[in-house]
Records
---
Amino acid sequence: MILKRLSFLLLGLILFAGRAPLQAQSLKSPQQFLGYKLGDQFTPHAQIVRYVEYLAGQAPNRLKLQTYGHTYEGRPLLLATISSEANVNRLEAIRTDNLKRIGLMPGQAGASGTQPAIVWLSYNVHGNESVSSESVLQVLYDLVTAQDANIARWLQNTVVLIDPCVNPDGRDRYATWHNQVANQMPNASPLAREHQEPWPGGRPNHYLFDLNRDWAWQTQKESQQRIVVYNQWMPQVHADFHEMGVESPYYFSPAAKPFHENVTPWQRQFQQIIGENNRKYFDKNNWLYFTRETFDLLYPSYGDTWPTFNGAIAMTYEQGGSGRAGRAIVTSNGDTLTLAQRIAHHYAASLATIEAASDRKEQVLQEYQKYYQQARTNPAGPYKTYLLKTKNQPGKVNQLTRYLDRQQIKYTYASKNSSDFGFDYTTGKSGPVKIEPNDLVISAYQPKSTLIKVLFEPVTKLEDSLTYDITSWAIPYAYGLPAYSLKGRVTNVTDKPAATATKAMATAGNERPYAYLARYNSLTDLQFLSALLTHNIKVRVTEKAFEADGQQYTPGTLIITRTGNERLGPKLDALVKAQADSFGVQVVPTQTGFVTSGVDFGSSSVRSVRKPKVGLLAGEGISPYGFGEAWHFFEQQIHYPVSVIETVNFNRLPWQQLDVLVLPDGNYQTIFDEKGLNQLKDWIRNGGKVIALEGAVAHLAGKRDFALIKKKVEDTINFKKDPYKALKIYGEAERSALSELVQGGIYRVTVDNTHPLAFGFNSTYFSLIQEVGNYQFMQNGWNVGVLKKDIYATGFAGIKARKRLQDSFVFGTQEMGRGQVVYLTNNPLFRAFWHSGKLLFGNALFMVGQ
Ligand SMILES: [Zn+2]
């Protein structure tokens, strides 16, 4: 198929006529700078950076450029601030006045009449939705030159912050690949190689995380650095530029239902206003578009919802295209969609957004201020305080407070005993609540109150259950901390927790103890264990509870004895202390292995934790996200060495070099055949350990020698008995399919915490579950985590799905010869934000089979 080459007619010329020549002659357009027309090829990230730097260098009085961070692969992350010369001259005052008005900075703001609205535009969060960072080059040029009188006026009313590429690693993965394989003359046939992006695709970042699911959790370096500058600016308007499949035209707000109930009337109204403003330009050019479908405002971790819960009006814009589209592609209706057209559409939406904010500047600013006023004085929702128990949970509390700090959520600690009435997250019931000193107290009366409510709400109200993503996420469940939401305010608080028992390590006479003890119940403790192992320190773990020096220790407690670590000599103490300090873990020295009650340290119930050599499968057939979550876990969370192995090499794995093999989610039909499966089983029988997740579990279940089997699906409809059951309504197809679905709900998993897979857990684990209960209890294995009857905590699950989840297997292990199979039917590393799940995975890795 030969492309009919469309010359790229710059949209600005169509839409915004009547330019007045200003400083433009001296500034190179993107085409002049790059040497090709936008749309003719994909621009590498380094060139995007060079062009923005060039504009900043040439027009410093209109564009200020900041490098706010770097990606995992070392590419710079940029923020360009563009406004009128007068505004650029007082940028810092504009920024700080904005923060003062909403209570995020102390002090009195200047006169409000001169305050411009702050508009933030984010491009290319999904790397292979690569049109964004092409169109932004034209947007930047036209804003900086401001030849159009309209643009000049908008820039008096607004400060425009532009992140030209949110995900440079993903973008370059796509752009580099495309530029390498594409024909000189674009081939628009969907069959051509330039439309078949290889594994893992350019959408996610380096660790294959979807950065548009990470705004609220901020587990990725890119998000963490971006949130710092976002909080420094706090824009009133945020637009996030995407692409969808090639068959769809263009999507702009208003967004689809469900809206989260805390999206305010003004935010809803402005969604409409923005839609109307976009419509003008799209109608004028006869471009197709749709609104109010597919892209909802519920899950709080998107580039539209997270800013929304921070008071902004925030939109997703979607152009038809993505990684399949290349520079030109023939769609099913025979039209050719070109990169140049895609650029024009995002360009139009970018300018229309700035225009809408400029036109209603006063109201945009007033409503924003009102939002924060309301947050501080009359917060949304029935609960006014969130209370978390901290006793014996320093690791979890440490992780949580670091998270709250990043979100600029303020917290204090209870200083006195008192009581209130509220909701208990563990039991799911409301009743009296005891408040004790050192409980973590998060008051709803603060600027980020709506965000707090959304992140902590026990139940998310759905006005419609058709949503794009998970439907529950409550932070107390994610961190595995006992928590309550209270109707009242807690007044007896202090900024710092009362000093806990002084570190026993410093006590005289304990310089060379018999052993060190460390409690184990959080990701932090897991990080500590991983650090000890990588420093070749021998660590033991108790399978049974014991009491020593008047303290109770649960199964999973780490014991570092001098015995076994002789070769370190006196260096052992300094090494243990250094690692404990760096993770904030408290280690307790003891002078004897003879415990008050329970098992002594020489008991056979106290096992050595071996330092396993770990392989992790990646490549064709494996879910990029599933692999990436495990990869990120090893490298960035527990800092433990891992060998990533390509699936094409499965049949010639160096089995003898591996102790553990992690099989992430994927389609294993294509990865190993009968011969491969037999190799795997032989290796397990010889002492290997497989950790199978999701799709890998599904592949092993029911196979010979594997103890896990699927549940039988009962034939629920008897057509013979009732032929009318066959009459379905076409228009309700999507809705009736919902009864079969679980959309990321939180469920109460009953846990056998005497098993090493559940060390550090209580008898209940709250799991984020996305799969319908597919498995029976195992007859020849350990059913460590199961769903029984009263299982539902929160989130959406259809009627049929809920029934099926009852009496089903969630995680457990099977012994096979001298080895182990660990089945994790739901991914405990999902998006790296379910912190309690990380301990479960860590147990599978270090504790099971010792
Ligand atoms: Zn996208």
---
Amino acid sequence: MSSYLIRGATFPDGTVKDLAVDNGLIAENADDAEVIDASGLHVLPGLVDLHTHLRQPGREDAETIETGSRAAALGGYTAVCAMANTDPVADAAGIVEQVWRLGREVGLVDVQPIGAVTLGLKGERLAELGAMADSAARVRVFSDDGHCVHDAAVMRRALEYVKAFDGVIAQHAEDPKLTVGAQMNEGEQSAQLGLTGWPAVAEEAIIARDALLAAHVGSRLHVCHVSTAGSVEVLRWAKGRGIRVTAEVTPHHLLLTDELAATYDPVYKVNPPLRTSEDVTALREALADGTIDAVATDHAPHAREDKECEWAAARPGMLGLETALPIVIKTMVRTGLLDWAGVADRMSHTPARIAGLTGAGGAGGAGAHGRPLAVGEPANLVLVDPAAEKTVVPSELASISRNTPYAGLTLPGAITATFLRGRATVLDRKAQA
Ligand SMILES: [Zn+2]
């Protein structure tokens, strides 16, 4: 295995120093090391995504574990949590083990499967939660994402079940009765465009209910892709009461608004939908003050025929892995809302802790705070050039799919290198094999 000496990198706390990578670990120094000049570059712990759709098994025409892993590495990620809404659904030990093994075989990023909460994502009977937790994949996060676990009794049972092994239920908060036929955010824009709206209350009511259920059970709740200012208020209230709830926000909800629906370009169709600029402001502030704990991509590749059609027929979802960090730099760092230590926290330490990933998150495993990038830790690292600017060209993305809403947009920050346990998965901005 190669060793590296990374010279003069800026650490998240602002100090500039050298960093050696030897035998898969962060080391004091390394013999016969390849020297990487990192002057002007930031080093962060490898990013961790709580919410990735890799589409395998079932929709390998949209993404595979291999192409999604390459996109992740190029985005600076060393671990991604793969959502369960594959075909077949990841609701049993055999399927999560298959996804986990394929991820290991590709070897570009740690693929941590998320298990379904209910069989077939039907919202009725619990999936094999215990068997998935005991499997080789060691599943700790369960989600019916794409669907809301809308039956309160089922949600309660799921929270009770995962408490035994400190698992977490990640909820796609959407009251389905309030979003029948919804095409975009409910508000001024939807009224003008004549499209059926997805009201904020459909998200906020489920978050409030689930926070109360989590408190009642004494279990852990994670809220996927928070998208409204009202949801932030509910989360603030729940956290203030000591309820064990964490939440994520996507890069697209930090940047884009529902005014884009006026283009009728389905690339902007996503669930939950793009909201208003007031929501965007509230989400940024909540990520800055920690009310929202983490950034998660909700990377959702779709084949051409599912996206290049009329708005109403298009599937919701956007690519996210390769552009997440640049968008966080644009919306949070350049605006002064978050420093680099904050970026490391929201995109690596905290998501690793929420997912219970040992060895990820930069220090001590499972996202322990306080000793970022310490000697002896697994060398999961990303080097970022904060001064670089890069224009998003869909045909250059590693994903099979092309549904990025950022085509032609110039974003700050370039991921120059990514290391997974000491192995360079990206070097000189290029994916390694
Ligand atoms: Zn979702």
